[in-house]
Design goal:
Blueprint lengths: L15 E5 L7 E7 L2 E10 L13 E8 L17 H17 L9 E10 L4 H23 L11 E8 L2 E4 L3 H5 L3 E8 L2 E9 L6 H28 L10
Parallel strand pairs: 4-5
Antiparallel strand pairs: 1-2, 2-3, 3-5, 6-7, 6-8, 8-9
Helix pairs in contact: 1-2, 2-4
């Protein structure tokens, strides 16, 4: 198996670490370092819900995503007059993904805000945001359970990873250089129970059913690694979760 420019195998993730507790004014925060992609994810609890959840007794979860100006070269311009199409699409994906894992009824009449700010971008920012936001959400949900004097029930494990076809081969976790030349770019979001969302687009030429199945197999294997890394990070913060298996 030939190695990639950074020395990884085709099925290998970049190094992924989670630094918990950078922000003290929120219910949960984590800086996820995923290769050279770094995303600060924070979770804030607000004691109100949007109109469509009013009177339900349950809560809501929403997400916001932003590239900081210094995250890219050239400098990324701040979106002062409203979010652009790419930003809106990514933050909707983050929100949908987390709502698939979190029990909104158990949240009580609260809104859980997840803010994902990309400090440095080198491919896979939406996947890093989802994976880190889940860690921040767990911390916030524990905070809510303590405030309500009830037992904390962790949400289903959730993570995301990019896979793709570069040249004729399938690769896990594309960095920017690989993503910019990929024939297929696929983002995969899942829990141990199954798939939450797949976004897979051909760039210039179609891909086969066999390639799709190979990408899904690569992604499933990567999620197992990510679930373990999330669990260990939370264990270090005093939150013990059951082991997750894809």
């Amino acid at each position: 198996m030939s190695l990639r420019p950074d020395g990884r195998r085709a099925d290998e993730l970049r190094p992924v670490t989670f630094e918990i507790g950078l922000q003290r004014e929120v219910a949960g925060s984590v800086l996820v370092r995923w290769g050279h992609t770094h995303v600060l994810c924070s979770a804030t609890l607000e004691d109100r819900v949007p109109a469509h959840r009013a009177g339900s007794g349950g809560g809501w979860l929403t997400a916001e995503y932003a590239l900081l100006p210094g995250a890219t070269r050239p400098r990324f311009r701040r979106e002062r007059s409203g979010v652009g199409g790419r930003t809106a699409e990514i933050q909707r994906l983050i929100g949908r993904s987390l709502r698939a894992a979190v029990d909104l009824d158990a949240l009580g009449p609260r809104t859980l805000w997840l803010d994902c700010d990309v400090v440095q971008a080198d491919g896979g920012t939406r996947c890093a945001s989802i994976t880190g936001a889940w860690v921040a959400a767990c911390l916030a949900l524990r905070h809510a359970a303590q405030a309500d004097a009830r037992r904390f029930v962790p949400p289903a494990a959730l993570a995301a990873v990019s896979v793709g076809v570069v040249g004729d081969g399938v690769l896990t976790d594309l960095d920017y250089g690989e993503d910019s030349t990929a024939n297929v770019d696929l983002n995969y979001v899942g829990t141990p129970a199954g798939i939450v969302e797949i976004q897979g687009t051909a760039e210039g030429r179609v891909y086969t059913h066999d390639q799709l199945l190979e990408m899904v197999a690569y992604a499933d294997a990567a999620l197992g690694t990510l679930f373990s890394a999330q669990r260990l990070a939370l264990l270090g913060a005093g939150l013990e979760l059951p082991e997750a298996h894809p």
